[in-house]
Design goal:
Number of domains: 2
Number of strands: 15
CATH superfamily of the largest domain: Formyl transferase, N-terminal domain
Helix content: 10-25%
CATH topology of the largest domain: Rossmann fold
Number of helices: 8
CATH architecture of the largest domain: 3-Layer(aba) Sandwich
Radius of gyration: 23 Å
Shape: elongated
Order of helices and strands: EHEEEHEHEHEHEEHHEEEEEEH
């Protein structure tokens, strides 16, 4: 089929490459404009643009796809289908109706759960044990279109968003190829979503990055892995921001001297000691968190052992 691909980040690249490998006629790629990145602030091409260059596919980078001048360029292509994977802009009705067969989206959740911009992050943060990808016919709503196919994958107890991102990107690419095979055969289903079961995965905000030690050890561990590798959970120690990269609930013994001999539970955020080669023990609102890897302000990521080699946390406390 003749296809226009619309996508921007790393997640979309395997789907684009899979379409090329499957022999589809890629008329063009639509992606976000180059954006400043890194400390230099120099504009950098989005990953899909780089991949399109390798494949020799023409690229459009409209600031807003809903603008008439952008659509004038876009509509010069006459595709059978538009494939949308993490494009980053809402498509207006005129674009949704432009391809002969419509627009198909690859979404990184098992719809109708986790509609929205950050489904992978929120699945991990919320401690889901299973997620997946769904292909759907796009409509004007936010991930509300009729479903075509879905594929599942388990979420391990120590999986980070980065781990899950890579698995789902590959899973979505394979599911997309099968979806288009069924579309070509006129056999692709249209299954209405059970809208009353919908949940949402909104854009992450700065407040979602902050660790509140009154929460349980499990919730905090899920938050840490759900924000790894971006934007990374953080707290404070001695007035300085500290990022936490890896942590898990601790089920072992806690040093007897941790509470100074008191029978009262330690205050949430209090440093309770450490387990050599494993991590730093921190009291939470429910249970103990083992902090395995962290990053002090202005420094590199390091193991808890490396951090403790230069810091005496006796009587120390994390938190704002």
């Amino acid at each position: 089929m003749k296809i226009v691909f619309m996508g921007t980040p790393d997640f979309a690249v395997p789907s684009l490459e899979a379409l090329a490998d499957a022999g589809h006629d890629l008329l063009g790629v639509v992606t976000q404009p180059d954006r400043p990145r890194g400390r230099s602030g120099k504009p950098a091409a989005p990953p899909v643009k780089v991949a399109a260059g390798r494949l020799g596919v023409p690229v459009l980078q409209p600031q807003r796809v809903r603008r008439p001048e952008a659509q004038e360029e876009l509509f010069r292509w006459q595709p059978d289908l538009a494939v949308v994977v993490a494009f980053g802009q809402i498509l207006p009705p005129s674009v949704l109706q432009w391809p002969r067969l419509g627009c198909i989206n690859v979404h990184a959740s098992l719809l109708p759960r986790y509609r929205g911009a950050a489904p992978i992050h929120w699945a991990v943060i919320n401690g889901e044990t299973e997620t997946g990808v769904t292909t759907m016919w796009m409509d004007e709503g936010m991930d509300t279109g009729d479903m075509i196919l879905a594929a599942k994958t388990p979420v391990g107890e120590e999986d980070t968003t980065g781990d899950l991102h890579d698995r789902l990107a590959a899973l979505g690419a394979g599911l997309l190829v099968e979806t288009l095979r069924q579309v070509e055969q006129g056999a692709a289903p249209r299954r209405q979503q059970p809208h009353d079961q919908a949940t949402y995965a909104p854009l992450l905000k700065p407040e979602h990055e902050v660790l509140h030690w009154s929460r349980s050890a499990l919730e905090l561990a899920n938050q840490v892995r759900g924000l790894n590798p971006w934007p990374v959970a953080h707290t404070t120690l001695e007035g300085e921001r500290v990022k936490l990269w890896r942590a898990r609930p601790w089920s072992g013994a806690v040093p007897a001297a941790a509470a100074g001999g008191s029978s009262q539970p330690a205050e949430a955020g209090s440093c309770l000691g450490s387990e050599k080669g494993k991590g730093l023990l921190v009291a939470t609102g429910d249970g103990v968190l083992l902090v395995q890897e962290l990053q002090p302000a202005g420094s590199r990521r390091m193991s808890a052992d490396e951090f403790l080699a230069g810091h005496d946390l006796t009587g120390g406390r994390f938190g704002f």
